[in-house]
Amino acid sequence: MPTSFASSEAIRAANEERLKVVERMGVPDRVPLTLFIGAHYFTGATGVSMARYIEDYTIMTDVQGKVREKYLRLFGLEPDYEELAECQALGCPISLEDENPATIRPAIGGPDEVHGLEVPDCSEVPLMNRSLAAYRYMAEKCGAENVGFESSMGPFDLACLVRGQSEFFTDLVFRPEVAHELLDVCTRTLIEWAKVRQEATGRPFTSVGLGDDFPGYVGPRRFAEFYLPYAKRFYSNFPHAVKYWHSDGDTSSVVDLIPQLGINVFNNFTPDWDLSFFKERLGGKVALIGNIHPLKVLLNGTPQQVKAECERLISIGAPGGGYALSTGGGVPRGTQEENVWAMIEAATGFRHDQEVL
Amino acid sequence: MAGDIFEQIADEVANLKAEAEATCRRALTGGKDPQMILAAISKGLDTVGKRYESGEYFIPELLAAGEIAQSATEILRSAGGPSFDGPSRKMVLGTVKGDTHDIGKNVVAAMLRGVGVDVVDLGVDVSAERFVQAVIEHKPALLGMSSLITTRMTYMESVIEALNRSGLRQSVKVVVGGRPVTQDFADRIGADGYAPDAVAAKGLVRRLLAEG
């Protein structure tokens, strides 16, 4: 017979309090969990097309809400346009398909065109407006305290998409002044966009996040020149917020520079390097949230394998504090529910065949 | 000395000097054997690969070296030698449908062109139908697919199925790569080869081309 458990709200609240302890590098009474779930999982789990999800925020809200209710409200709702709004702001053509991720094309055709880029008026960017409207709708429907609006893509990935990834990477070698100019306009755009989002929430951000998957691929010298100054400039605009940095690219070559970002939390980082590597290099300096392998374990493993891996990661991450369990990257589309529950059970002790009050 | 200009080309490629293109042109107009010039470019790229493996170079340097080598080999090609034609050194390459990431593919393309492989780059977001059409049109020895997105790499299997349905699978060797791709995945979908990065891809393609 399933046994009863504390209310789902009590589980959620306890998890949230533990996460706050982790953000401050403290030692919680047990390791919390963050569920890093995005559009691909939401749409796959509910059978809603990607295009409808993006184009109609009432559907987005409904879809996220259903999954959130299923998983004990362990994550907040979020206007979920991934990098689309920021890319549109700088002129990238975007096309939506029913089932595929959106296609984003570079905004400029050559290095000379970087000079023509300007920080946009966010109120004139359709997807930024839609994102703001989505936030207001979600906050009204579910309560502002349950909606996240603090994270965006970072300046490096935005530069890659605006210029073209290969073109931007070769700019770093052959045309560094062009790369700097582009990173500058991307950073200023993201600061402006974050301030607009913050204003929409009606209160200072208590946390703020950037997601940049590509800067780790350029090596430490170029990371120091082309990434650190821009990320630091962004974070300096939110001095009192807890600062999150997400990068699920390979950061192994730049790992020792990560504390220089001035961040509090490194979240959902690459699963290709074991947690023990990051714990050894960053433990005591930056809180860590990760890094269950989303494919090898979460998508393709059994619930027993997922739980065992979670327990292994907790045994590595928990000592000394500053650790929360999560995935390395997002929860993949198609992940069976039992595997998500295995993660939840490992962190909260709650089994989904137990009753909640 | 005859060896000097070849050494210079190799050094310029290895050290990411755009002058390599002009040096190749000078070597060619000076009557040097195009095959030897190509070998010098290839030697420079081998050094780049070693520096990448040792942690001295990273992805931007691979792309830059590939771009230089590509420009240099283009000079040889436009001058009519060495021969790049024929199916034995031709490869069709693309990022699969639903994925617009091009770094990995472009690094591989540039490195392979630098060693004389005739790469037909289909770009990004390439459908199975376009891959099949390109195999029919170009008759390549190899077909390469790349993906950076976990949820899109499974499309590689659709491409292999489309090759099977078209009766073309036996005519072309299929190689796959991209950050989430693994040897296990490559084996599971029936690919002929997998490379974890562009440097390994260069070795893999050389080996498969040599096998014929």
Number of helices of chain A: 15
Low-confidence stretches of chain A: none
Neighbour order of strands in the largest sheet of chain A: 4-5-6-7-8-9
What are the secondary-structure elements of chain A, in order, as H or E?
EHHHHHEEHEHHHEHHEEHEHHEHE
The CATH class of chain A turns out to be Alpha Beta
Largest sheet of chain A: 6 strands, parallel
**Mean pLDDT level of chain A:** 94
Biggest chain-to-chain interface with counts: A-B, 30 and 27 residues
CATH architecture of the largest domain in chain B: 3-Layer(aba) Sandwich
CATH homologous superfamily grouping of the largest domain in chain B: Cobalamin-binding domain
Rg of chain B to the nearest angstrom?
A: 17 Å
> What portion of residues of chain B belong to β-strands?
5-15%
Q: Which of globular, elongated, flat, extended, rod-shaped describes the shape of chain A?
A: globular
> What integer is the average pLDDT of chain B?
89
Q: Largest sheet of chain B, described in full?
A: 5 strands, parallel
SSE-based structural type of chain A? alpha/beta
Order of strands, widest sheet of chain B = 2-1-3-4-5
Straight-line N-to-C gap of chain B: 36 Å
CATH topology of chain A: TIM Barrel
The CATH topology of the largest domain in chain B comes to Rossmann fold
Number of strand segments of chain A: 10
Describe the structure in your own words.
The complex is a heterodimer of chains A (357) and B (212). Chain A is of the alpha/beta class and 357 residues long. Chain A has a single domain (4-356), classed as TIM Barrel (Alpha-Beta Barrel), CATH 3.20.20. Helix content of chain A is 48%, strand content 10%. Chain A has helices at residues 8-23, 39-46, 50-55, 57-70, 84-89, 126-142, 155-163, 165-174, 176-201, 219-226, 228-236, 275-282, 294-299, 303-317, 337-348; strands at residues 4-5, 94-95, 103-104, 151-153, 207-211, 242-246, 265-267, 287-292, 323-327, 355-356. Chain A has a six-stranded parallel beta sheet, sandwiched between helices. Chain A has a two-stranded parallel sheet with strand order 1-10. In chain A, helix 12 (275-282) links the parallel strand 7 (265-267) and strand 8 (287-292). In chain A, helix 8 crosses helix 9 (176-201) and helix 14 runs parallel beside helix 15 (337-348). Chain A is globular, with a radius of gyration of 20 Å. With 212 residues, chain B is an alpha/beta fold. Chain B folds into two domains: 2-78, Methionine synthase domain (Methyltransferase, Methionine Synthase (B12-binding Domains), Chain A, domain 1), CATH 1.10.1240; 87-211, Cobalamin-binding domain (Rossmann fold), CATH 3.40.50. In chain B, strands 2-1-3-4-5 form a five-stranded parallel beta sheet, with helices on both faces. In chain B, helix 5 (103-114) links the parallel strand 1 (90-95) and strand 2 (118-121). In chain B, helix 4 (59-78) packs across helix 5 (103-114). Chain B is globular.
